[in-house]
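Sorry to interrupt, but I need a hand with the structure work. Go ahead and set the record down below:
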Amino acid sequence: MQQGSTGPAREGVSASPQTGKRTATDSRYLEPVTGKVMSMGEAIERYMPDGATVAMGTALEPLIPFAAGHEMIRQGRRDLELVGPISDSLFDQLIGAGCVRRVTAAWVGNVSEGLGHCYRRACEHGVPRSLEVHDHSNFSISLALWAAAWNVPSLPTRTLLGSDILRTNPGLAVAGDLVQVSAVRPDVAIVHVQRADEHGRAHAWGPLGISEEAGLAAERVIVSCEELVDASVTLSDPNRILFPETKVVAVVDEPGGAHPSPVQGFFRRDHAFYRDYAERSRTAEGFESWLREWVLEVKDRASYLGRLDVESLRIKSHRPSAPADFGDD
C-alpha cells in the first residue's frame, strides 16, 4: 500500500462519502475476521482507521511496538490521538510523519538521548502540523485508562495537586481536595509481547507499565509477538495472560517488532540506533532522510531487520523462572 493511501474500504469497513477514508467511529464495532493471525499490514489496514485514539508504548521503555507504528506511517494514517505513559521515540516518529493531531501522555522524547525533536517542532512551530497536547503523569494516565476499563467517568487522586499539568489538560478537574481524572478510552491498544497464541492470549514479562489497563480500556487490541505459540503454552500459565482474548482482534507474528526497544529474554536495547535517530532527527530534513531509509523504503519488518546486525542484539544469557504448579486435585 502506498504512502498516503488508506486503500479501498473492506467488507464491514465504512468509508466517509466526503473523503473516502475510514474513521474511528466507522470501524469501532467491527467483528473480527475469522482467525486472528494476520500480517501487520492487514492488522493496521483493518483495525487502525484515520482519527483513531491509539494506546502504544504502554510498557514504558521496553516492548514498544515500533513495527506497528512504522506500518501506520507507511499506510498514511492521519489525525491520530496517541495515548501513553512516558513515550519513547515511536511517538516522535509518528508526529514527524504527520500522523498525529493530539498526544495524551506523560512525556514524549528519546529516553536515553533527551528531546523528541519532531515533537518539539510540532509544538513550537506547527511542523509538520500543529499538535494538541493533553499532559498527564504516568500515574494519572493509568487512572484515566482504569476509569475507562471500569466504565466510570473519572477516578480521584491527590497526586496532581499543585502541578502545572492541571492547567493544560481539560480532562483533569479539581474538586475540593481531589483531582478527578476523566476516563480515556482508546479505540485501539497495540502491544508487543514475548509470546501469544492464535486466539489472542498474550504472555508478557519484565516491566509492563500500564499495558493491562490500556488493553482493558480499549475497544480492541492488536497484539504483536516474538513467538506465536500453541494455546497449551499460554494456558499453562493463565496468571500471565495480559487481558481477555475477546479483546484481541489481531495477532501478528512479528519477531523483532519492538526494535530498538528491549524485549526481556529476547533482545537488548539498541542504544546506538536511538543515538543515531536523535542526531538525524534534529532537523526536519534529517528526519525525512531517516524516515525514508528506515520506514518508507522498507516494505515490512523482515526487510527492516535485514538491515541490522540482529544477532548482536539477541540476549545471550538466559534466566528462566521456576515453573508454577497449578495442580488443584
